[in-house]
């Protein structure tokens, strides 16, 4: 029989038939953990087994999600980060107690600084051994307290499901971040009924998504009055999936847009209002615009020092509007005139309505006149040795800027940020806040697992690649179509560059040897290609795209190529140093 809808039916007419009692399932803590992940809709987890999680691994074959066996737990955490950033879903990683758990710490810190939602599950020793220096016991909740949004030690099997429910909620809500759930072995083994909660929440945690309308109106008023406004786009726009709204806001206000490293792709960099990256390796015209602007509207960025340079010299003529979901960010690094606390998307929805259509074509023309035109022209001469910027541009052009690109940390990362011309923020996956070397390959693995439909490139330095090259085995085992571009200069390039420019060329411990990367790729069962000449760049990229499975291209570049512009550490953005070939625009004919 069809039962009446209890919401709408007259209570008198509701049938009194007894409801079948739901079947209560008695499961082990390990099974509950797996069923909870399934209930959260988790499709892929990245992990590595060990003693304390053997019961969990016993249950994993019956779970609906897929487990990817990494080669080092740190890269499980960063694969989860890559997965989360590519999909917008929560990334999940698993490690055993002790050394497994401590290996996650860097990945958790990376996720915290870049506001990435991940849940890490660690095994813990039996509760009877906690505090007794049991084998592989570390106080991982104590260790990770400063690098997680929240963490838990679960003491009863009954608490696993509600704790995981809350962990996922905390990771993805408000300002996203990493949450760790530590589960002792005896809790995995204990049995109890499984009942996944439908809701999660805490009285003490109420993220404020919708901004105060009065603050939005003050911001709109400042925007309407400004003569030389700039929008600073941050990761918050990408995280709240607010690209379309952001474009409408920029277009309606007609305000030029500059990007933080993680804000790149908040709007297509080829949009006429897009100016490019700001800060330490920002474009000249962008940093010049920051000096001149009378209003800076920061949406979803946290005024990181790599973006601001010396605070005292930052946007000194500008009134500051700061839209951020985290009230703790307001006024933390930069004085703020109009704070707007809320989700970037919610704030943009209101702002688009409140602002008047603007016209800043004169201001835009001035900014464009400050571009590095002379340098761009000089860079058109093609030398025989592959130029790093030419490699990056070729990847962008050949993939039509549609591929996911992950990077490692260093010069190649900055060349990528400068020359990829990023179209979609969620396809630009780089370690911003923590600057974690080794990030490039595991995050590409995570991204490809999450978005198998998209082409994935990892741009990596020869130093950083040697930190996580073991993950080639994971990529081969999973038969992942990932293309790896090693920008090989034989140095820890970015450190060498600082020594070159700021330490009187005292190249201390930066020359780094490497295995033959082509042979290394082949040893793992991947394909290796070497490029030593400029005219080999394009054919190599095309060939890599046509080959199944992981492909590594070893691009051998000029060992001492530098990234320009560069703002010296501790200096203002206005004190940027330029490429030696650079000619100021007024002298450019
Ligand atoms: C784990 C870690 N250790 C050290 C650093 C400091 N660091 C930043 S960039 C860099 C050099 C990177 O060299 P490479 O990977 O070859 O890339 P390149 O700069 O040459 O492009 C180093 C050592 C870091 N960011 N992360």
Summarize the structure in words.
With 589 residues, this protein is an alpha/beta fold. The protein folds into 3 domains: 27-194, Rossmann fold (3-Layer(aba) Sandwich), CATH 3.40.50; 213-369, Rossmann fold (3-Layer(aba) Sandwich), CATH 3.40.50.1220; 381-566, Thiamin diphosphate (ThDP)-binding fold, Pyr/PP domains (Rossmann fold, 3-Layer(aba) Sandwich), CATH 3.40.50.970. The protein contains 24 helices and 20 strands. The protein has a 6-stranded parallel sheet with strand order 3-2-4-5-7-6, with helices on both faces. Strand 15, helix 18 (411-419) and strand 16 form a beta-alpha-beta unit. The radius of gyration is 26 Å and the shape is globular. The termini are far apart. The relative contact order is 0.11. The model is unreliable at 1-15 (pLDDT under 50). It binds thiamine diphosphate. Thiamine diphosphate is lined by residues 408-412, 435-437, 461-464, 487, 489, 491-495.
Short summary:
35% of the residues lie in helices and 16% in strands. By secondary structure, the chain is an alpha/beta fold.
- Rg is 26 Å
Structural class: alpha/beta
Shape: globular
Uncertain residue ranges: 1-15
Q: Mind telling me which CATH architecture of the largest domain this is?
A: 3-Layer(aba) Sandwich
Q: What percent of residues adopt helix (DSSP H or I)?
A: 25-40%
Task: Tell me the total number of β-strands.
Answer: 20
Strand order of the largest sheet: 3-2-4-5-7-6
- Write out the CATH superfamily name of the largest domain: Thiamin diphosphate (ThDP)-binding fold, Pyr/PP domains
Question: Mind summarizing the main beta sheet?
Answer: 6 strands, parallel
Number of helices: 24
